[in-house]
């Protein structure tokens, strides 16, 4: 516990600083002084480790003497941003000068910095909690299965999100003052600390305080796992394996977390592959471009897990099964050129190696949305060409009495329902209406340019019989075929 003195003649300001410090910094005992005499008495009697000196409290030889004798770490506060104020602060040995107004975080950062310096100075003088006979715990006990070394240790794993910051984390752990000194084992992806399990400590609070202090020192994310298994028959190797497995929970909960386990972590089994029904769902979602249902499916299936968690490996397989459906859709829509291929491979690697499932799902949703948008753009730019080709094909095959939408679908290589939708969107008519228009147009030409009877013309233009042809022709031309021929002939030969 470190003693801290705030000397400030503004009582409310001093109380505010006290509350801020005690609620944010561990292991401090804060006292207040509101005049010069009280300040000197606290300095002499309580010998504070850190002295926060507001210059409005005054200065004198007695105060200078008390500071010189006790040598606290001094933080000076002043409203005067002048050379004289800075010189006075230097003269009394100030390590930090804060000019009002300053942020509360600036004050806290300096206090935490000075506490760590005090901890480093005093670390070598602390009594070691580990007994001499326990100093023979070595790396081999963690990694060798044949090791029979059994001790009642609490395992705490410190896992950074970025492996590159492990050296900083290890140094911070080495200098950090725990109530019980741990045995520290730096590994390639985390650091394991072994604590004497007989210590009566609130491990969760202890680790949350460590995380807060670490965050003040380095803003890189870490995850802390506390293994409180009490099985007396577990070797250090077995407990290490259990602890390592527990750290995989980051896949579901992310970093900046402190989690306790009192028993071995067991994964829940799930089917890693899509069912036939789910495959049909995905085909439907992708064909319809239903982004909302895709997002809902992925969120429901992968972001709502609670303990017991499913095996992360099986979840990754299930995600690759979904990616395979997206891949098939890309092939079927001719969206497999280089740009999308590279992004597809990046998503595949993300599924295999990303450490947090939320990020995988987020990137998968973005990628799927991009695929749907690309298919939509291609359709908008190409459907006009498709319809033009279809109309030309119909002009060559209109005479077939059994000519149907399915024939056109096979020619265009498009789904009949989709093709029917395109006809209406492009021509404002159905396929059948367009076909009838073409047939009637050709029938009019034959009526005017040939002497063929109506029955022959009906057959040559694809109608089932003369009577059906006459009815349809009258609906389109406003008169029967024979009357149309007579009218057109009279107009053609009437002198102008």
Tell me what you see in this structure.
- This protein has 496 residues and is an alpha/beta fold.
- The chain has 21 helices and ten strands.
- It has a five-stranded parallel sheet, sandwiched between helices.
- Strand 7 (183-186) and strand 8 form a beta hairpin.
- It holds the Pfam family HTH_18.
DSSP summary: helix tally: 21
Which percent band covers the strand fraction?
A: 5-15%
User: Roughly how many Å apart are the termini?
Assistant: 118 Å
Class from secondary-structure proportions:
alpha/beta
User: Number of DSSP strands?
Assistant: 10
Average pLDDT value?
87
Helix content: 55-70%
Largest sheet: 5 strands, parallel
- Evaluate the radius of gyration: 41 Å
Strand order of the largest sheet: 2-1-3-4-5
Spans of at least 5 consecutive residues with low confidence: 124-135
Q: What's the shape?
A: elongated
Write the layout of secondary structure elements.
Layout: E1 2-7, H1 11-24, E2 28-33, H2 36-46, E3 50-54, H3 61-70, E4 73-78, H4 83-91, E5 94-99, H5 104-123, H6 139-143, E6 153-160, H7 166-175, E7 183-186, E8 191-196, H8 203-217, E9 222-227, H9 236-246, H10 250-253, E10 257-261, H11 276-288, H12 291-302, H13 312-332, H14 338-353, H15 357-397, H16 405-412, H17 416-427, H18 431-449, H19 454-460, H20 466-477, H21 481-493
Parallel strand pairs: 1-2, 1-3, 3-4, 4-5, 9-10
Antiparallel strand pairs: 6-8, 6-9, 7-8
Helix pairs in contact: 2-3, 11-13, 12-15, 13-14, 14-15
